Amino acid sequence: MKKFPLLIFVLSINLITAQVGIGTTTPTADLQVVGDVLVQDSFKTGSLGTVSGAEEGFKLLTRNTSSNPVGEITVLDVDQLNVAPVNVVDYHFTNIHLDNLSDVNLQYDSNKYVVGVANFRQTGDAVKKTTVSGNKSIGTFVVRTFASSGTWHLEIQNRDLDLDAGDSLEYYVTLIVYNKSYFRNMPSINTNLGGSNTGIASSVPDLY
Q1: Using CA atoms, how far apart are residues 162 and 176, in angstroms rounded to an integer?
Q2: Where are the domains of the chain?
């Protein structure tokens, strides 16, 4: 009778330390899955090995939120991406009509990428101030990217004023192109400051 509890204890240790295989009878790791993995709740990891800057050939494990049902674990193969996660592209625009770069189709697919303006400068002649209701005005100058008809577009112009006849300028702009595979679109946050120049954003986005 005294040997029976000891036998159960030894068997328990063997079960705890055994390797587990799903889809295979010969697992080579603590848990080996041969087939698809679906995680429909949270996906948590502990301490994992890291990849050094000199290592190559590794893959990124991701949870697919567009699978049916949601939660399929798959591999994001960076070798097959058309662009890197973050890309920096410099543009130089010349021979502009007045100063009106009102709509330039950048041809980046808005379903795949997010395009933002990181840097801007202008060389050449300046738009002259004008008098509006007794006050000097420099108009409304705009530098922005926007999505339209499935692609990203660029606007750089003074919407109210133009260059004088014979004047010219050039635009230099740096665009940051983000691959949407790595980013999540968050809802817009609208905040009414009630006429004040200070305040607090009306909400905080859920980043998790």
Answers
A1: 28
A2: 1-35, 86-181
Pairing mode of beta strands 135-137, 130-132: antiparallel
Contact 116, 176 (CB under 8 A): yes
Q: What six digits make up the tokens of 17?
A: 């330390």
Residue 16 has phi, psi (to 5 degrees) of -65, -40
Structure tokens at 200: 């607090």
Tens digits of residue pLDDT in 130-165: 887 888 888 999 999 999 999 999 999 999 999 998
State how far the Cα of 178 lies from the Cα of 176, in Å rounded to an integer. 6
Q: Residue 183 carries which side chain, given as an amino acid letter?
A: F
| Continuous segment of H or E residues that includes residue 89 | strand 86-93
Mean pLDDT (the chain) is 84
Q: How many CB atoms lie within 10 A of CB 124?
A: 13
